[in-house]
Design brief:
alpha/beta; Rossmann fold; pyruvate-formate lyase- activating enzyme; 2 domains; seven-stranded mixed β-sheet; 47% helix
Length: 549
């Protein structure tokens, strides 16, 4: 069927949307340019399952595609995918993203209703799928696609990477603006991939199969997108969602950031600020000066650990001295760095953890959190643990036991005691990172005594929470050094007692965080309104809007 008789398709794309899900929006834009109708629907966890299914089915779509980027959300998405056909969906069911790129056989096995899976860059694959459906042809035999044939699963060839990502149509934006500190934030992607080859990162694994690790957009095209957000959506903060923004060579970073700033100025974009990401070994005075001239005020920095052994194990290309130098040069140029300390990995020791705690203690005024190195599909770390016979769980939730029994017990205690403080998605320390960014926005756009007083409270609250967290970590380390770690009853009792005590202290800290967060929002809206800058319509203001990792 073709020409006038060709029935263009309706598609619904589903995925997590705490920030703008530009991955789905690029897919949607590509399909729309080909003439198909596409709606993007949010699904963050299983509490939203019923409303997501209802909304997805409302338009009677021909295709439903689910974007699965996060390993820890697989079960939520299995439940979603398994709920669609019992509720009446009779069309084509597919999924894509990092998880299906590596786990397509597992997903096809566990979700009998799933027709296909899309691997790697999905824009052209999705369009070809919809075109085939419009022509009433089977959806199979495509590069980048996995499909069923009889009882088997067939994997098509890897689709060639999109080198000209500026050739994609612009990603749409949500009609509801995102706010941090009462200021409109918009999100942009200026590159795909990463130059790093970290052993724990699925990004490196994702790009290595395509043979192209890092692709840049033209600064003029990025500026055009930001200018539209600035003039049409009142955006004054740009959150760059690149896995890596700062380039390995200082000269290239300087050229790129200056080209972007010049392109923005030529398009009438005035004062905007940026949140970007970088690696410690690339942060030089020249780079930081160029970033500040562009408007960067915050940089998520891949510090990871203060142990050279741990950095080498994780496949990082920097040394502990680079961490200190990067943090200091960011401070010197007025850029606030934030970071997650990877305290635990399969081969870490208590001495390794202690070294990183020393680094954390030197920077209590900076927004940071702590975590364990997790295992993701397709990564070198997964292969290594598998070869060593140490990989636990399955693709829905991989795990491991640390070789150092005391480090393992320390983490198990913290998983109980520090869950709400540090390890949960909306933990107190993650909220404080978002609050710190709101504080920076006010300091930049609304300088003066009132802002200074507000900023002082935010910094002091963060220092209090992080100092207390550091104390908990050191006390827990001292406990596991002294206790018989085989005494499960003593370990459980300590973990529960610590959790109760921390949660009691956190009642006040959480209340103060929420009060300052709301204050930043209300005050920011009022001050922008006084300048004639107001967001259009209802806005989103959750802490996840300013989550950096």
């Amino acid at each position: 069927m073709s020409g006038a008789g060709r029935r263009l398709q309706k598609a619904v794309l589903i995925g997590p949307i705490q920030q703008e899900n530009l991955a789905l929006q690029y897919l949607a834009a590509s399909a729309r340019r080909a003439g198909h109708q596409v709606e993007v629907v949010a699904y963050n966890d299983r509490a939203e399952l019923d409303q997501t299914v209802e909304r997805a089915l409302a338009s009677s779509p021909d295709l439903i595609g689910v974007g699965l980027a996060f390993q820890n959300a697989i079960q939520d998405y299995i439940e979603l995918l398994s709920a669609l056909r019992p509720r009446g969906f009779k069309g084509h069911l597919t999924c894509g993203g990092h998880v299906p790129t590596f786990c397509y056989r597992d997903l096809m096995r566990d979700i009998p209703d799933l027709d296909t899976a899309v691997r790697h860059d999905g824009e052209h694959t999705l369009v070809e799928m919809l075109d085939r459906m419009a022509d009433e042809k089977p959806v199979r035999g495509l590069a980048g696609l996995v499909w069923r044939e009889g009882e088997g699963v067939v994997e098509g060839p890897v689709r060639q990477a999109l080198n000209d990502i500026d050739g994609l149509p612009p990603a749409a934006r949500s009609a509801e603006p995102y706010l941090v500190g009462g200021t409109v934030v918009d999100f942009v992607i200026t590159a795909r991939g990463c130059v790093g080859e970290c052993s724990y990162c699925s990004i490196a694994a994702f790009t290595s199969e395509m043979g192209v690790s890092y692709r840049l957009r033209n600064p003029a095209a990025v500026a055009e997108e930001i200018a539209a957000s600035y003039h049409e959506r009142a955006a004054r903060v740009v959150f760059v969602q690149d896995d890596l923004f700062v380039l390995p060579r200082e000269k290239k970073t300087v050229e790129r950031t200056r080209a972007l700033r010049e392109a923005l100025t030529s398009r009438g974009v005035g004062d905007v600020v940026f949140w970007v990401k970088g690696r410690p070994e690339t942060m030089t005075p020249g780079t930081c000066q160029a970033l500040r001239e562009m408007g960067a005020i915050h940089l998520f920095l891949g510090v990871e650990s203060a142990s050279a052994k741990r950095l080498d194990y994780l496949g990082r290309t920097h040394l502990p001295i680079h961490n200190q130098n990067a943090i200091q040069v960011c401070r010197d140029y007025g850029i606030v760095p934030s970071f997650n300390f990877m305290l635990f990995d399969p081969d870490c020791s208590l001495d390794d953890i202690d070294a990183t705690l020393d680094l954390a203690e030197q920077h209590l005024d900076l927004p940071w959190n702590v975590c364990r190195t997790e295992v993701y599909s397709g990564t070198e770390l997964l292969s290594r643990l598998q070869a060593e016979g140490r990989l636990e769980g399955d693709y829905k939730s991989y795990g491991y036991r640390m070789n150092d029994a005391r480090a393992e017990v320390m983490f198990r205690i913290l998983r109980v005691s520090l869950h709400e403080r540090a390890l949960a998605c909306e933990s107190l320390l993650n909220r404080l990172i978002s609050l710190s960014f709101a504080r920076q926005i006010h300091e930049h756009f609304f300088p003066g005594p009132t802002t200074a007083a507000f900023a002082k409270k935010v910094v002091e609250l963060g220092v209090t929470a992080r100092r207390d967290t550091l104390r908990v970590l050191r006390e827990t380390m001292a406990f596991v050094r002294a206790v018989d770690v085989r005494d499960a009853q003593a370990v459980r009792r300590y973990a529960v007692e610590q959790a109760l005590a921390i949660q009691l202290r956190d009642l006040s800290l959480k209340a103060q965080t929420e009060e300052l967060w709301q204050l930043s929002h209300v005050r920011g809206l009022r001050l922008w309104a006084g300048r004639g800058v107001t967001p259009a319509g209802r806005a989103r203001v959750g802490y996840g809007v300013a989550a950096g990792s």
